[in-house]
Amino acid sequence: MHAFPCGTSALDFVGTLRARRNDVPTEKLGSPEALDAWFLEAGLMDRSPRATTADLQKAVELREAVYRVVHARMMGAPFAEDDLRVLNSHAAGRPITLQLDESGMIDRAAEIAEGLSQIARQTVEIVGGAEGDVLRECGRPECTQVYLDHSRGHRREWCSMKTCGNRMKATAFRARQKQPAATA
Q1: Backbone angles phi, psi at 138, to 5 degrees
Q2: Ordered mean pLDDT values, 10 residues apiece, the chain (184 residues)
Q3: What is the Cα–Cα distance from 66 to 127, expressed in whole angstroms?
Q4: How far apart (Å, rounded) are the C-alpha atoms in residues 145 and 136?
Q5: Using CB atoms within 10 A as the burial measure, which of 63, 97, 138, 161 is most buried?
Q6: pLDDT at 154
Q7: How far apart are CA 35 and CA 119, in angstroms?
Q8: Which residues contact 122 (CB under 8 A, 6 or more apart)?
Q9: Are β-strands 17-18 and 135-137 bridged in parallel, bridged antiparallel, or unpaired?
Q10: Is the dihedral of CA 109, 112, 116, 117 positive or negative?
């Protein structure tokens, strides 16, 4: 149900609102159950946190604050006070608890607030650290996914080669095929 092309939970969480520049973006967190599914699919929790409508509202508020803070960092712009308040409030929360069960497996039992706290702390580390310098937005015009560009030379253009990269390359190929052959 969800995509995880960024390699970091915080930025993948931002991507739960897809195609932000479209007239009608695609909301992937349309219900408390979708929020539960995101945390499970992201591997941050091993059991459904049983999100409520209030949890979903807090999650969307955090997601949007994270997006604006990340975007401001990429643009070298100041952060909005409200966004910092939301981000730092969540970052101050309890972390996801890890426990070892009887069989020696890790059990990530958490509530939504703890998951949001982890996302906020990760955002603070990215934006406030050296990784903030390699934040990029996908080069496909319809995509607004933000990712960390750890490629050699920092020349990565797309959030994911499997999706946006393939689409852009296919579009460029089709455009070249439509052009008339040059005469000598």
Answers
A1: -50, 140
A2: 82 93 93 97 94 98 98 97 98 93 89 97 97 86 82 68 59 67 58
A3: 10
A4: 8
A5: 138
A6: 67
A7: 13
A8: 8, 9, 10
A9: unpaired
A10: negative
Burial of 153 (0-12, 13-18, 19+ CB in 10 A): exposed
* Residue 96 Cα to chain centre, angstroms: 18
Which is it for the CA torsion 111, 9, 71, 15, positive or negative?
negative
Dump strand ranges (E) for the chain: 17-18, 26-27, 97-100, 106-109, 135-137, 146-148
Q: Helices marked H in 76-160 — which ranges?
A: 81-91, 112-128
pLDDT for residue 116: 98
- Whole-angstrom distance, CA of residue 113 vs CA of residue 85: 16
Enter the tokens of residue 36.
């539960």
* Residue located via tokens 């797309």: 158
Q: How many helices (H) and strands (E) does the chain have?
A: 6, 6
User: Tokens at residue 116, please?
Assistant: 């949001």
Q: Residue for token digits 């603070």? A: 124
- pLDDT value of position 162: 62
pLDDT of residue 165: 52
The C-alpha R_g of the chain, in whole angstroms, comes to 19
Output the pLDDT for position 110. 92
This prediction's pTM: 0.85
